[in-house]
Every structure is written in structure tokens, then in C-alpha cells.
Amino acid sequence: MKKDLVKLLDYSTPKILALLDKANALKKSKAKTRLDLKGKTVGLVFQKPSNRTRVSFEVGVH
Questions:
Q1: Distance from C-alpha of 40 to C-alpha of 50, rounded to nearest angstrom
Q2: pLDDT at 17
């Protein structure tokens, strides 16, 4: 079951290292198109208005 990442203290060192390894593998991936979010709805909620932050998240999700 997937778990939300709220704070790192909720996770063991091996889990954090596995998460970082996965992030590194995704970053190195040469795939141009990822379908992880296909068919999903993503909501963005920010405490302060920020076009730069909003646009960067929208591009990442798209």
C-alpha cells in the first residue's frame, strides 16, 4: 500500500535510501514519456501565490 511522505522521521534509513535510489533511477531514465500519472487527477494546493512554483508543478505533472 502506498504511503504519503509527510516527514522523513516516519521512515527507516533503509526505506529512505530505497526512495533515493528510486528517484536517482528515474532521473537517469532516458524515457521521454512517462505514464505514471495517466488517468489520474492531481490537485495542487499552495499556501502562497507563486506562478513559478505552480507552472513547474504543472509541467512536471503533464
A1: 24
A2: 94
